[in-house]
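Dear colleagues,

For the upcoming journal club I promised to circulate an example of a predicted protein-ligand complex. I picked one with calcium ion because it came up in last month's discussion. The inputs are reproduced below in full, followed by the predicted structure.
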Amino acid sequence: VAERLGAIAKQDITVSRFGGDEFMIFFDRVEDESHLTSQLDEIFAGLQGEVDVAGHGLRIQASGGAVLSRVKDTDVDAMIVKADLALYKAKELGKNSWRLFEASMDAAFRNRQLMKADLRTAVEGKSLRVVYQPIVAMSTMRIASCEALCRWDHPDLGPISPSIFIPLAEEMGIISEISTFVLQAACAECAKWPDQTSVSVNLSAKDFRSRDVIQKVRDALAGTGLAASRLEIEVTETALLDDKSLTRQYIEELKQLGVRIALDDFGTGYSSLSYLHKLPLDKIKIDRSFLMDVTQNPRSLELLKGIVNLSRPLGLSVTVEGVETFEQLKILALQVKPDLVQGFLFGSALSASGIETMSNTVWPFAKDIRTAKKAVRR
Ligand code: C2E
Ligand code: CA
Ligand code: CA
């Protein structure tokens, strides 16, 4: 890469290596934005394709951030920060391209920094909460288990979605503190629920980077006295992709403790069927995107049926997520036949005591489904 970039260096273009795999190009003289654009487009075109490394053709991907400044306002340090923000945005929008810095990136960056500081305070002060969403057994229409979901109520901004603060925590390196907190809380609450009710906890791919994850789970069980068989850990494919052999080993060890393992959001990532075969999983949770259009789209229905039929012989149980309407539930009951269902039809997440109260509830759909089944038989 250095050789290729070096070729464009001349009197008013300085090319340097910034560190690691980062390079910096300084254009001393730029006419206007379109002049810069054409120069950068040309450089990026030159980086496409394979790079020969000691006889091996390696495919590279490059992303870039650029910032334009008038000579009289030039502050190189500030320019580097801005170029970096633009680079960050370019990566976020898909690799292999470059972006020019805009003032809004600065504002977004400042907001993110503020939010990170507040999140750190919330995690340290243990002001996060855990709520529990019912997971209902198809055969009985009663709560079989609950998924622990983390909540953050920001003092000024109100509730922040976990799909925002969990990735922030991962980026900040404090996700494992959140995992510990949720594990502890979920095991302590579940220990108070009737024996037939289990609990599921989401762990991050980052948790599986270290073997501490095993001790963490062991501590949560020992500290609360919860039977390991009542705890399920949800992992996503990203966790499995990160480092196949070690993650696999950690999952095996968790299983040896007696904990069950579910593969979350199945169907959103690579959905490699080889995971189902190779990893010691107990369950897969099919992402709600499959269910969303199931009442209109026969392909989604076939996919759902296919995944269930494939999983059963492998000894995996199946949860379908995102059940919002009775119509969807009926299709599931009559055609897809998963083991468990979860979704707003049965309620969104509740406090732990709410779950205790509901643990013996039998949803009235049970009767409606029996009626629907009879109608089909007739
Ligand atoms: P997830 O693990 O797939 O959790 C299910 C999400 O779907 C929850 O969103 C839940 O409220 C939502 N949901 C449930 N039923 C329905 C439905 O019928 N329709 C729709 N539209 N949505 C439904 P939530 O609580 O906002 O969490 C979002 C994601 O954040 C979770 O997705 C999970 O990936 C992550 N997350 C939440 N809590 C934790 C945690 O404690 N640790 C980690 N690592 N991740 C967490
Ligand atoms: Ca989950
Ligand atoms: Ca999910």
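Two points we might discuss: The chain has a mean pLDDT of 92. The domain at 113-377 is CATH 3.20.20.450 (TIM Barrel).

See you all on Thursday,
B. R.
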